[in-house]
Design a protein that fits this description.
It is a single chain. By secondary structure, the protein is mainly alpha-helical. Helix content is about 80%, strand content about 0%.
């Protein structure tokens, strides 16, 4: 009976330590996940505004400004300080170029093309790094 109690207590303590470790490891990636969630939200808002036929609109202007700002945060968020990844850096440069080329004051047809190009830039990186 004593061995059974020790086994159960050991399993409970081991489970608590495992959950603590898993939680700590999950928090390690909070910034990159948050950055990607915000980018996804902004891109979705821009797509909805372009589909709604309200071009140009303040939603598109705001999404453009936010995506340009976030494009500059990609490298520090995804790469450890002092590390280099040539392919990932190229994807981030490509994304920055595409977002910079986006003109949020254009008509809806050009908005749809620009948003498709931005989505393709995101998917190209996700295909290799997700």
């Amino acid at each position: 009976m004593r061995y059974l109690v020790c086994l159960v207590v050991g399993a409970v303590i081991g489970g608590l330590f495992a959950m603590t470790l898993a939680n700590a490891l999950q928090r390690r990636n909070a910034w990159p996940r948050a950055l990607m969630n915000v980018m996804q939200h902004e891109l979705g808002d821009a797509r909805n505004a372009a589909k709604g036929g309200t071009c140009p609109s303040p939603v598109l202007q705001r999404a453009s400004e936010h995506l340009r700002l976030l494009a500059g945060d990609l490298e520090p968020a995804l790469l450890a300080t002092g590390s280099r990844d040539r392919v990932l850096s190229q994807y981030m440069r490509d994304f920055g170029k595409v977002v910079t080329a986006w003109e949020p004051g254009a008509d809806c047809m050009r908005q749809a093309e620009a948003l498709t190009t931005i989505t393709n830039a995101c998917e190209a990186c996700h295909r290799d790094y997700r």
